[in-house]
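REVIEWER CHECKLIST
Item 1: Sequence provided? yes
Item 2: Single chain? yes
Item 3: Sequence as submitted:
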Amino acid sequence: MPSIQETKRPTKEQQKAAMESYPALVALLEEINSDYPEIEIEETQERIKVPINALRLLAKILKETSQGNPISIVPVATEMTTQAAAEMIGCSRPHLVKLLERGEIEFTKVGRQRRIKYEDVMTYKKQQKAAQRKLLAEIMKEDEASNLYDS
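Item 4: Structure as written out by the authors:
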């Protein structure tokens, strides 16, 4: 699975550098009106064109790094193994296979191996989170109606 990963927590120095760089990059992004702005590497004075979407992604990376969060970038069309998908969802591999066989997540077979697109795993995960939030809201409404929160 092709991916770019930095799964270690950033150091305090990296967090500080990201905290200083993030606001500056966000401000510059608001002013840029080109799809391929040129940036200059200070150490080498080399100028390179960078797609604006890559700079926006860099801003998100800086924000997460400044908060001390590890980063992982996975191309959207990447296919995953059942084990990797199960880990991403937070369930066992056998449970994931049941979800696949019931059609809750799309997959393809390569020989005997099942492959799942990253974006399909993320779609399922988002749907599950939304369902959990809805259920929690319903439970809270029932509890309020039953006066469970009055003391």
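Item 5: Key structural point noted by reviewer: The beta strands are 4-6, 38-41, 46-49, 71-73, 79-80, 108-110, 113-117.
Item 6: Recommendation: ____
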